Amino acid sequence: MHSSVLVLKDSLKRESGAKVHHANIQASKAVADIIRTTLGPRSMLKMLLDASGGIVVTNDGNAILRELDIAHPAAKSMIELSRTQDEEVGDGTTSVIILAGEMLHVAEAFIDKNYHPTVICRAYNKALEDAIAAIDKIAIPINVQDRGEMLGLVKSCIGTKFTSQFGDLIADLAIDATTTVGVDIGQGLRDVDIKNYIKVEKVPGAQLEDSRVLKGVMINKDVVAPGKMRRKIVNPRIILLDCPLEYKKGENQTNAELLKEEDWSLLLELEEEYIKELCEQILKLKPDLVVTEKGLSDLACHYLSKSGVSAIRRLRKTDNNRIAKASGAVIVNRPDELKESDVGTGAGLFEVKKIGDEYFAFIVDCKEPKACTVLLRGPSKDLLNEVERNLQDAMSVARNIIKNPKLVPGGGATEMTVSAALKQKSSSIEGIEKWPYEAAAIAFESIPRTLAQNCGVNVIRTMTALQGKHANGENAWIGIDGNTGAIANMQERKIWDAYNVKAQTFKTAIEAACMLLRIDDIVSGIKKTQAPGAGPSKPKIETEGDADGEQILPD
């Protein structure tokens, strides 16, 4: 009797696991289907309504999935993939979701045949190792110093984006910005900190062609006293502060009892003396521009303007860091600690200009700027937002190439090469893992197949011809031209991808598919809402008598 109870329980558990696998696979496929049409240069755009009621028009996989509100946990983890890909390499956000969805789709047949998920995952991990080895073989090095090669690569990577219709503009901006802020970290390697040292300022108006990379920093601020302070200074001496230039307020409430009228004026004089002393310590170094992150009182403004010094107050910390990197100044916390070496002399021009309705301060023409601002102009905010998203991707691609200067073919050629290599190798794999391994090889074909679908060509003919070209591990550079749907040599058409992006896409997609396959139960920790007015439910306590009277098996 006891053995039959165990068998019954076990079969219930297994059924529940299979159901969960199917639910997870369906949810992942649904997410992949949402953005499948946004792969490639001839892709569709999506119009999204965001939480605040605004409209986003984009074909960037990450931007679309970010706006989705999905309850299913497996679908949520798929969306997380695209975010990881965007933060890590900045490109391939759509490919990673399509590939992960396809990996799960081909695994469904094995789940139905009662294959254990661990077996499938083992085969997938083996396929991932062989896929990385295959792209290592076909990768070719690139010369980072050759601007033409870099431009071609960045252009082909953002050729699938909305802004590809504007030609070289975005690619030029991305390469200029990343080469400006790149720093050597030894052993011939360079690092580019896009997040902290490249600021993208979007100013509606003028034409998109007026966008440019400034050799310095632009901030949305005017000088404190526009009439009294200079708005244009050539070769300015810049002091950056992280402290207020006003009288210190007490931390807590302070009461002062004054008995004589003179004491009141003495108290005011002390305040004025303190501010005068602060200003004198700053003016000793003969600056032309003082920038502080905190407040600047009217009196301090008077002393500074009297000495012909311009001042900007309440600046963001991140902007202050960028000015420091661009002009060579050091941010100081106390004016009495100022030294000559803290003064920034690297900027060529400080100027305040009016663009549209607002004033912008430019600290430009820097000698060796390690921070810069990309000024984007354009007719509407929606367009500027999309251009900014594309520019971020382009800068990430340029950064990847600077970090790891290797190229692989685009247009689905890499995936077809990997697929052909895995199919050949699958014949030498013994045991039950052979079939999931072969299925993983077929799953890689989903990228060129989706490209062909989005071009509007005959998918079956194109894929058969492409498989024929790649059959014996030859023609590694033959892929699909996303604009025409024709089968072409990617090297001749200059359709390339960064090695980092491809390797990260494969790793993320396969590891995520393995993780989702190994989930056999979803336990909800969310409390169900009680009916209004109902008190807290009391837990039911079983007694020994209840346990004895319980039927283990139905009659």
Helix-strand layout with pairing:
Layout: H1 2-35, E1 46-49, E2 55-58, H2 61-66, H3 73-88, H4 93-112, H5 117-138, E3 140-141, H6 147-157, H7 169-181, E4 183-184, E5 190-191, H8 194-197, E6 198-204, E7 212-214, E8 217-219, E9 232-234, E10 238-241, H9 261-283, E11 289-292, H10 298-306, E12 310-312, H11 317-327, E13 331-332, E14 349-355, E15 358-364, E16 372-378, H12 381-403, E17 406-409, H13 413-426, H14 434-443, H15 446-455, H16 459-470, E18 478-480, E19 487-489, H17 490-493, E20 496-498, H18 499-517, H19 544-549
Parallel strand pairs: 6-16, 10-11, 10-13, 11-12
Antiparallel strand pairs: 1-2, 3-17, 4-5, 7-16, 8-15, 9-14, 14-15, 17-20, 18-19
How would you describe what is shown here?
- With 555 residues, the protein is an alpha+beta fold.
- The radius of gyration is 31 Å and the shape is elongated.
- It has helices at 2-35, 61-66, 73-88, 93-112, 117-138, 147-157, 169-181, 194-197, 261-283, 298-306, 317-327, 381-403, 413-426, 434-443, 446-455, 459-470, 490-493, 499-517, 544-549; strands at residues 46-49, 55-58, 140-141, 183-184, 190-191, 198-204, 212-214, 217-219, 232-234, 238-241, 289-292, 310-312, 331-332, 349-355, 358-364, 372-378, 406-409, 478-480, 487-489, 496-498.
- 48% of the residues lie in helices and 14% in strands.
- Helix 5 (117-138) crosses helix 14 (434-443) and helix 9 packs across helix 10.
- Mean pLDDT is 84; it is low at 1-15 and 547-555.
- It has 19 helices and 20 strands.
- Strands 8-15-14-9 form a four-stranded antiparallel beta sheet. A four-stranded parallel beta sheet has the order 12-11-10-13, with helices on both faces. It has a three-stranded antiparallel beta sheet with strand order 3-17-20.
